[in-house]
Amino acid sequence: MTLKxxxxxxPYFTALFRAIKQQLSAKEITIYEAxxxxxxxxxxxxxxxxxxxxxxxxxxxxxxxxxxxxxxxxPKSKTILESAYFRENDNNTRANIVWAYLGLENxxxxxxxxxxxxxxxxxxxxxxxxxxxxxxxxxxxxxxxFLNKREHPLxxxxxxxxxxxxxxxxxxxxxxxxxxxxxxxDLTETAAGLRSIGKLRNxxxxxxxxxxxxxxxxxxxxxxxxxxxxCYAISELNESAAYDTLRRLYLKNPEKIVKYGIIEALAVGGxxxxxxxxxxxxKKETNARIKQFIETLIENxxxxxx
Length: 306
Known about the structure:
Layout: H1 10-25, H2 31-38, H3 42-55, H4 59-72, H5 77-87, H6 91-102, H7 112-115, H8 121-130, H9 153-161, H10 170-183, H11 187-200, H12 205-222, H13 224-235, H14 240-252, H15 256-269, H16 274-284, H17 288-300
């Protein structure tokens, strides 16, 4: 149903909204289509959105109203969505309210304190995924609260990826994540942890990675994706000792994709010891194409010798 944008009175817009709801209820249109139909009249229909999200007895229509308020991007949507979040008792609808709220340009950072502690895991996950920088909420929270065994795996993984956002200092974070990785059997969690250690760029980052390599090196040999994440983490550190660790991993890993990852990590680092490590790898390598790749990198990258 499409109406021309004229100066209709309120009853026309009320009738439009009612008709869209009927089509949505009868599954004649999708929720995406319904939102696209009503949002162009967001100013005229705002009171309908508000009434729907706060008073409708059916969760699906409250969810629909949340989407409308989020996409409308009206300054007054913020207060309504906040109020709806605190009174909503349906988990899926509450999660969609949070998703709509965090899509607002004027949402309040303080609300993260509530979202990150919400009992429904999906809301905690949505909040973590939407955080781009340390804010008032994360600065007060310890990462350990997301790493317990009762936490949903997806939330744990996202918390590990965003470790730098939490209140803990980097030394403590490295210890927590390092200990967690030594005991985790989840490959996705392990990959996220390795990358997070590299991003922290602390003077203990390399020691944490080397300890992981020494105790769980076989895991890197058996899983290409993990080995590549390990390479990425090492390349972030630009330390001489890191290059020797990569060289040893290279000599023990026969997978070509991992070898290429290690070679690129050495070249990207470009710090002391990287050229020496590449030359040692070059001498041991028997594959002509890989040797040519190493030659090209040495020629086109500024590398130094210790």
